[in-house]
Design a protein that fits this description.
This protein is an alpha/beta fold. It has 13 helices and 13 strands. The strands form two sheets. A nine-stranded parallel beta sheet has the order 1-3-2-4-9-8-5-6-7. Strand 5, helix 6 (165-171) and strand 6 form a beta-alpha-beta unit. The two termini are 37 Å apart.
Length: 382
Amino acid sequence: MSLDFLTPVDDTVLGVATLLPNQVLGKSIQVYTEKLGFPDLERVKIAIIGVQESRNSYYPVMEYDMDAFRREFYQLYPGNWDVSVADLGNLPSGETTEDTYHALSEIAKHLRQVGIIPVILGGSQDLTVALYRSFEQSNHWVNIVSVDNRFDFSQEEELISGRSYMSEIIMQNPGRLYNFTNLGYQSYLIAQEELDLMDKLFFEAYRLGYVLDYPQKTEPIFREADIASFDMKVLSGLADGTFPQGMPNGIDSRTICALSRYAGISDRISVLGCFDLVNSTIFHKLLAQIIWYFVEGVDNCFDEYPIATSQGFMRYAVQMSDRELVFFKSNKSQRWWMEMLTENYLDNKSKRSPLLSCTHQDYLDACNDVLPDRWWKASKRS
């Protein structure tokens, strides 16, 4: 079985948790240790796995101290959660990077098939390739949302790396990628050829300033995500020395936690990855809180996917100068979707038009005869 690749958490790490109050996470989550054995996954919703693979990274990546993260995470108090969390230990690096990719892909696929969301921590962001490959046998298109200061395309390299892994995914044939969205890119780190490629493929990208100014507008983007991939080099911190490998400009700790919560709220999210981690006390604490907010989001998801607009939704038809757009607003979550009515987008199996998540502002724009950019790009991708 694919889970046999995993190695247990050191018993001493869980032993530290026994000294903490009874209410903390370390006392309530299931942990794979040599002493306790592998946990029963029947009711588990989220599974944490540490990975150290970074041999294909464009930048030097230090081996992350997963046990230090665990000590911080275990001492946090859970919310009033119904979600069950398990820590399944670590995936050792294989003899080759392809061995690691294969093992991680099989683990992610197995967990998703039994209704568990894998949370992959450590290594470099090229591990997103392995997470994407876990969908190869699925019968639906895959959406990737990457929180990163770069697009991670490569115009020349053939090697999969933290800078070129997206090229590997795009070039895969046959491919399952429907949409790739970047959150937090910084223009001075992006080649013009990469921007041109994003436009040509009708992918979506949102600059750092937009994400910082309007973090709440990223929720509809995560709502469409199957894979959420966080590159921690996106964090700011070089100026104050908090994250020595960070950038002078970047996403702050409060915003990154908000983004993680939005990823968890998504009813569609299938796997979360946090890569290029930093070995420092403050970062261990931050990562623990990022994962805490993700679990909080999963516990608070609205269970509205797939969308059934026959009940619990208000329908709004907007007549624009050249077309009619139909919007739906959920009575339960107050969230918005817009209907894709283009001929190519029609779902031939169900004979109905699928919905694309959007914001209330998209509806207001349509009322003012402004076609939402997300609708236009989605119609072109189809």
